[in-house]
Amino acid sequence: MGEDGYDTIVVGGGTAGIVLAARLSEDAAHRVLLVEAGGSNRNPLYRIPLGIGKLRTARGGLWRHTTEPEPHLDGRALALGTGKVLGGSASINGMIHMTPPAADLDRWESLGAAGWNAPSLAPAFARLDAMLAPRRAAATHPLDRAFLAACAGAGIARDDALDAPHGEAAGALLFNIREGRRHSVAQAYLRPALARPNLTVMTNAEVLRIVAERGAATGIELADAGGGPTRRLRAAHGIAIAAGALQSPKLLMLSGIGAADALRAHGIAPLIDLPGVGGNLQNHVDVALRHACEEPVTLHSLLRAERILPAMTRAWLFGTGPATRFPGDAAAFIRTVPGERLPDVLCHLVEGLGIRGIRWPLMRGPVDALDREGFSCRVMLLRPESRGRVALRSADPRDPPRVRFDYLSRASELRRLVDGVRRMRDVFARPEFAGLRGAELEPGPAAQDDGALAAWIRARADMQCHPVGTCAMGVGADAVVDPQLRVRGLDRLRVVDAAVMPAIVGVNTFATTVAIAERAAELMR
Q1: Phi, psi of 298 (to 5 degrees)
Q2: How many domains does the chain have?
Q3: Pairing of the two strands 32-35 and 6-11
Q4: How far apart are CA 374 and CA 301, in angstroms?
Q5: Rounded to an integer, what distance in angstroms lies between the CA atom of residue 271 and that of residue 235?
Q6: Catalytic residue of the set 30, 183, 284, 466
Q7: 57 is in which domain, residue-wise?
Q8: Running along the chain, 525 residues long, what does each successive block of 10 average in pLDDT?
Q9: CA distances in angstroms from 469 to 47, 157, 194, 509, listed in the order given
Q10: What confidence score (pLDDT) does residue 366 get?
Q11: Rg, Å, the chain Cα set
Q12: What pLDDT, on the 0 to 100 scale, is given for residue 466?
């Protein structure tokens, strides 16, 4: 196809972009170009579930973001890597599949996103479930069994419909794993679509800006990978930006769409004054409670070279063995405030103390205090009230954006995390963990009162890779897109990804992002 041979250009080959491009290309007469800044996902590690550890520490395949100093987290700057590869963050995430409670989606409509309530989105979730067919984890690992039994003993009932939480419950999670391999949108949606002659996929192609003419988006400007001049590609029907909650607002601002004064400060001529671009940034903040383990059943043992290398080979060749699962099948949704309708904290048991590399036989001693047998529990705040912002660092597209989440700016958020940690301490202290439970490593026995726990959380809190909200849909002054996902003030331009969520959902965001793209395909058709 020539540069004028496309009807729709989708910018971003991540979760939403792949789903949107695949659905639009089902119409054989509609010519679709999918543009991804990263490379292909052909590396075998992208398909092996336990490859997640290596992928998150590898040099390639990631947008490496570092936040501005977070004032309520002791001024720490946090690292956040999002997927820069075909498949996006769905190629490197934990593969957990969760459907949000209806109340979360109904809240979107109350915030101005008309037609985005739970009944309206139900068909989109049904379609994606049919495509992805997530599988329930077995939860037979000794730590998972102990966790679920201890939760039951602590009054958190077992419920294996945990992917759509409506109350306190503990159970086995759903994962996007099929036949022992990661089953992301790249496999479920893109692979079958690649046979269509009307779909073109372009990788290692970074979009510099959206080209607009006479009040409408007409194309994109691409950087030349070889250092040559930029080039332009045109779209007859329009452009859909699906680059994620950090890159989508950056691209809009580089294209002159954002707060006019801030754009002028970087020497960018404003095209549309939209102050909401980059605002409303939200993510799930969490903290890890860590214990030593008395039995050699954790990742520490598995990551020995003589064990993990055969396990990875077996997983790739046959889809069997210990490398074919995420190291943590079980989780619990809990309420920290009595009487609240929905759980506000998710506690996910992980069969290790953190992401580690391979342990070689001749390596000298432990690397640090966490290089040992142990397990952890990620205690995650589900509906944070804090709001941050993505802003330009400069007018140079190669510069990463400035990102500040403003985590725990509300006292209630810190209170909920403190109470969530206390609930999990009670679970781990139960007799069901006898024989497995070693010493508490973090926060440690010295941190008992609320003040000590709060100080530990501020010093150690981290985040999930669930950024949303920076191009929020709605009708108010800060809305960036309307309920049809059209950018306000510019025809033929949409944003289709997690950036459009007015408020974060109280679950992992992957499935909801797929649903947004499914719904967008309906709207655009």
Answers
A1: -105, 180
A2: 2
A3: parallel
A4: 10
A5: 19
A6: 466
A7: 1-135+180-282+393-404+467-525
A8: 76 98 98 96 89 72 94 97 92 94 96 96 97 96 98 94 82 96 96 97 96 96 78 96 98 98 98 98 98 96 92 94 96 94 96 83 69 96 97 96 98 98 98 97 97 98 97 96 98 98 97 98 95
A9: 29, 33, 30, 12
A10: 65
A11: 23
A12: 97
Kindly write down the DSSP assignment for every residue of 327-392, as one continuous string: S--EEEEE-SSTT-SS--EEEEEESSSS---PBPTT--S-SSTTSSSEEEEEEEESS----BEEE-
CATH number at residue 274: 3.50.50.60
Residue 488 lies in a domain: yes
Same domain, 433 and 521: no
Concerning whether 30 is annotated as a catalytic residue, the answer is no
454 SS3 class: helix
pLDDT at 519: 98
Q: Which of 460, 476, 498 is the last residue of a domain?
A: 460
Q: What is the identity of the amino acid at 513?
A: T
The confidence score (pLDDT) of residue 1 equals 39
Q: Is the dihedral of CA 499, 500, 501, 507 positive or negative?
A: negative
Query: Could you tell me the CA-to-CA distances from 464 to 81, 142, 161 in Å, in that order?
Result: 10, 25, 22
What secondary structure letter does DSSP report for 100? Answer: P
C-alpha 117/C-alpha 473 separation (Å) is: 13
Q: Round to whole Å and give the CA distance between 461 and 71.
A: 12
Instruction: Let me know: does 502 contact 110? Beta carbons within 8 Å.
Output: no
Contacts of residue 230, defined as CB under 8 A and 6 or more positions apart, other chains included, come to 208, 221, 222, 223, 224
CB within 8 Å of 429: residues ≥ 6 apart: 437
Give DSSP secondary structure letters for 169-193: EEEEPEE-EETTEE--HIIIIIHHH
Question: What DSSP state is assigned to residue 110?
Answer: H
Amino acid type, 83: G
Domain boundary among 424, 444, 460: 460
Kindly report the length of the chain: 525
Amino acid (one-letter) located at 117: N
Tokens 């540069």, residue located:
3
DSSP state of 436: T
From 299, 327, 328, select the one nearest 171 (Cα to Cα).
328
Can you tell me the distance from the alpha carbon of 104 to that of 425, in angstroms, rounded to the nearest whole number? 28
Whose tokens are 């950036």? That residue is 499
Give the 3-state secondary structure of residue 10: strand
CA 462 to chain CA centroid, nearest Å? 14
Give kind and range of the element (H or E) at residue 332: strand 330-334
